[in-house]
């Protein structure tokens, strides 16, 4: 009896350890090469549920999400003819915009932008926990934000925050090396009295 209790507690301890080891926040890496394997829709739904749990001041919920179907994806890929071939290899897109009621660059507008950024991170981290790779794209799309907003038929006044590419990565996320941080923690942390 005592032996089996010890065995069960060892099992629980090892699963807690493995949870800590596979912390999705550190597992997430920017991924540009994907396989053709589909991403389960329940994984995407869970990632969107995680996204909307991002902190947001005054509960402004400033994020708006767009998942393009085949026709809209083709339009996104054709926005920049020089990159069409590369874009066509991306299995899934999520376009994230900000709808803020606040004056541009005001304190509350910046808070809304921060909240949407947190939502994007939550989305990608949740995917990473399920082995799904993602990449936050902006400038490298080579198209003006207005063109992307127009393609996804974003609402009046919405601003582009991210186009997130996602899919099953060619190389597993686990073990993928992060691009080295030049400053690191030591270069960015000040401990005060
Ligand atoms: C706001 C934002 C915009 C980004 N835009 C691009 C982009 O246009 N092209 C690109 O290759 N990566 C883009 N990235 C991804 C970064 O290049 C990537 O996060 C960085 O290289 C660190 O790698 P990691 O995500 O694996 O930690 C963007 C990231 C953020 C936060």
Structural class: alpha+beta
Report the sheet with the most strands, covering strand number, pairing sense and barrel closure.
4 strands, antiparallel
Order of helices and strands: HHHEHHEHEHE
Strand content: 5-15%
Number of helices: 7
As a whole number of angstroms, the C-alpha radius of gyration is 20 Å
Number of strands: 4
Distinct small-molecule ligands in the complex? flavin mononucleotide
Q: First CA to last CA: what distance?
A: 51 Å
Describe this structure in words.
By secondary structure, this protein is α+β, with helices and mostly antiparallel strands. It is built from seven helices and four strands, in the order αααβααβαβαβ. The protein is globular and about 65 Å long. The model is unreliable at 16-20 (pLDDT under 50). Flavin mononucleotide (FMN) is lined by residues 29-30, 136-140, 178-179.
Outline the fold blueprint.
Elements: H1 2-21, H2 24-27, H3 41-51, E1 63-66, H4 70-78, H5 84-87, E2 92-98, H6 107-129, E3 133-137, H7 145-151, E4 159-167
The site of flavin mononucleotide has 9 residues, from β3.
Summarize, please.
This protein is α+β, with helices and mostly antiparallel strands and 193 residues long. It has helices spanning 2-21, 24-27, 41-51, 70-78, 84-87, 107-129, 145-151, and strands at 63-66, 92-98, 133-137, 159-167. It contains seven helices and four strands, in the order αααβααβαβαβ.
């Amino acid at each position: 009896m005592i032996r089996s209790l010890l065995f069960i507690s060892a099992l629980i301890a090892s699963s807690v350890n493995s949870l800590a080891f596979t912390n999705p926040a550190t597992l997430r890496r920017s991924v540009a090469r994907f396989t053709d394997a589909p991403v389960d829709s329940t994984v995407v739904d869970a990632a969107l549920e995680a996204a909307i749990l991002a902190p947001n001041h005054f509960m402004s919920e400033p994020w708006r999400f767009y998942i393009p179907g085949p026709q809209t994806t083709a339009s996104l890929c054709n926005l920049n003819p020089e990159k069409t071939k590369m874009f066509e290899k991306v299995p899934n897109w999520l376009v994230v915009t900000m709808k803020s009621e606040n004056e541009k660059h005001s304190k509350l507008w910046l808070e809304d932008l921060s909240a949407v950024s947190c939502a994007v991170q939550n989305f990608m981290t949740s995917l990473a926990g399920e082995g799904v790779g993602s990449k936050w794209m902006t400038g490298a799309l080579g198209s003006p934000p207005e063109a992307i907003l127009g393609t996804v038929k974003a609402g009046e006044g919405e601003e582009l925050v991210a186009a997130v590419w996602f899919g099953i990565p060619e190389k597993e996320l686990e073990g993928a090396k992060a691009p080295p941080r030049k400053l690191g923690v030591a270069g960015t942390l000040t401990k005060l009295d």
